[in-house]
Amino acid sequence: MPKPPAVDFDDCVGLIRVYKDGSVWRANLDNHPTATDDDEDGSVQWKDYVFNPKNNLSLRLYKPSAAAAAAAKLPVVYNIHGGGFCIGSRTEPYHHGCCLRLAAQLRAVVVSPDYRLAPESRLPAAIEDCHSALEWLQRRAAAGDDTWLSDVADFGKVFVCGESAGGNVAHNLAVRVGSGSPELGPVKIRGYVVLSPSFGGTVRTKSEVRTPKVQMLTLDMVDWYV
């Protein structure tokens, strides 16, 4: 058995450890099994796709089960998970449950992409990956060959949403893609929703300076991870 590193470089409340030799350990957040076809009452269906084979990245699509019978196609919510850029995934139960509710209650198709995590892959890797997932959506929209998606999704009504670190990524996508996303046609992004976005910079803001050192993600940790 290989001997584990002797000393932690940093520890984020037991969720992630970065050792002095550069190796990284993460807790498995996918500890609550979910159904493989739909949610508990069958109102939402979902499936996974690989959108970036080079980096082994997947996304998860959700749609209301009755979407095929709808009179009009449904808007698309592109939802980016949070996690301080260093934890989280499309399969994490909290994020998965959120996407199920968005699809069911908004009557929308939901796209939930994974992205490479820090500290192994620092920014702008997450931003590049989420843009890559938008390009994947563009290719699917242009081809129209996946009826599971194309029969129900209105690619002219796409809304990008992100929480915490995902909010930061959504903001950067807005800056990069711009209003109407002309280079992504036939995909058209109609709006962006940023929920408690995580921002930082080379100069400390007042809120960063006042952040207690007991917080889950300290300033030193955020600086090093991203």
UniProtKB/TrEMBL annotation:
Which residue intervals define the domain Alpha/beta hydrolase fold-3 in the entry?
78-225
Query: Which molecular function GO terms apply here?
Result: hydrolase activity
Q: Which family does it belong to?
A: Belongs to the 'GDXG' lipolytic enzyme family.
Name of the protein in question: Alpha/beta hydrolase fold-3 domain-containing protein
